[in-house]
Amino acid sequence: MKKEFWLERWERAEIGFHQGEINPYLLRHWPELNAAQGGEVFVPLCGKSLDMVWLRGRGYAVLGVELSPIAVQDFFRENGQSPAHTHTGKFECCAADGIRILCGDFFDLSKQDMAKVTAVYDRASLVALPPEMRERYAHHLADILPAGTQILLVTFDYPQAEMQGPPFAVSVSEVEALYGKYADIRLLAEEDALAQNPRFQQRGMTRLQENIFLLTLK
Questions:
Q1: What pLDDT is attached to residue 82?
Q2: Which end of the chain is more exposed for a tag (fewer CB within 10 A), N or C?
Q3: CA 179, 143, 46, 131: dihedral to nearest 10 degrees?
C-alpha cells in the first residue's frame, strides 16, 4: 500500500476510520498498563484521534506520527490549539500543550525519536497495513522502542474475503507470529463488535471481532 493512498483519503475526507469519541477499549484497558505518569505515550499513524487528547488529560506527554499534513492540521485546529512548528530529521514536528505530532513516514522513525517513550497505543496502525507490510512494521516498532515498553494493541478479526481492507483482519495467531519474538503477549479481551459497526454489516460482513492485547517488549 503506497503513501498516496492515505494522503488521498485525507484529501478527499474519506476518513471513516476516524472515531468521534474516545475509544472504549482505551478507557477500559489502559489502567492495565504500568505506564508511568509523566511518561511519553507513542500513537503510531495517529490521524487526528481524540484518544491523544484523553491520554494528555491523564498526565502523559503524547507523541504521534502521521503521514498526512491535513490530519495534523485538523487535529490542532479542531482542538483549538496553535502548534509550534520545527523540523527534526525527516519530519516536521507540530507541538502544543504536551502533544507532539511528527508529520512523515513511520518507517523513518529512529531510536532517538522514541527515547522517552514508555508506552504505545495502537488502535489504527497495524490494522491499516496490508499483510506484506505488517512484518516490517512490527520489526521496526520493536527495534526503535526502549526495552520494557508496553503496547496496548487493538485489532480487527473478520473473514478477510468478505471485505477489502483497510482495516485489515489481523488474527490472534498473526499477532503472536508478528510479535512473539519481540514481546510477551497477553490477550486482554475478545469483543464481538459486529452489532456496533453497521457500516461493516452493510458491506456484507458476517463476523467482526475486536481483540485487545497488552504487549511488553523484551
A1: 96
A2: C
A3: -50
Give the CATH number for residue 182: 3.40.50.150
In the chain, the number of structural domains is 1
Distance (Å, rounded) from C-alpha 136 to C-alpha 178? 9
Residue 199 domain boundaries: 3-14+22-217
Q: What is the pTM of this model?
A: 0.94
pLDDT confidence bin for 178, thresholds 50/70/90: very high
Task: Locate 42 and state its grid cell.
Answer: 507513542
* Count of alpha carbons within 13 angstroms of residue 94, beta-carbon side: 21
CA distance 28 to 210: 14
The C-alpha cell that represents 64 in the structure block? 504521534
Closest CA to 96 of 104, 84, 79, 106: 84
Q: Give the Å distances, CA to CA, from 105 to 2, 23, 161, 181, 212.
A: 11, 24, 29, 25, 25
Residue whose C-alpha cell reads 516536521 in the numeric block: 92
Instruction: Tell me the mean pLDDT in the region 151-163.
Output: 95
| Helix segments in 82-196, DSSP class H | 131-144, 172-179
- The number of C-alpha atoms within 13 Å of 165 and in the hemisphere containing its C-beta is 21
Reading phi first (left if > 0) and then psi (alpha if -120 to 50, else beta), residue 47 is in left
Q: Which residues is 103 bridged to in the sheet? A: 66, 92
